[in-house]
Amino acid sequence: MTDVVDSDELLRRMQRAKVCARKEERTWRERGDALREDDPAGARDAAVRATAYEVVLRVLDEILTPGAHEARPE
Predict the structure, then answer these.
(1) Helix 40-64 and helix 7-35: axis angle, to 10°?
(2) Domain assignment present for 1
């Protein structure tokens, strides 16, 4: 767990993480849509998970392309 990586490898890892998070966010959104009618609790759980991946995507976007997105007012 003490691997030393250069900046290019770190960038590649973050880009792979972004692709993975985008895929997971899409999967959970689709699952939530499919569950909406028959399982409202499952749909809510899927929505929460999709939102979590959406946040991960925003953080990775800000790391990989700083300032490219407007900050949301709190």
Answers:
(1) 160
(2) no
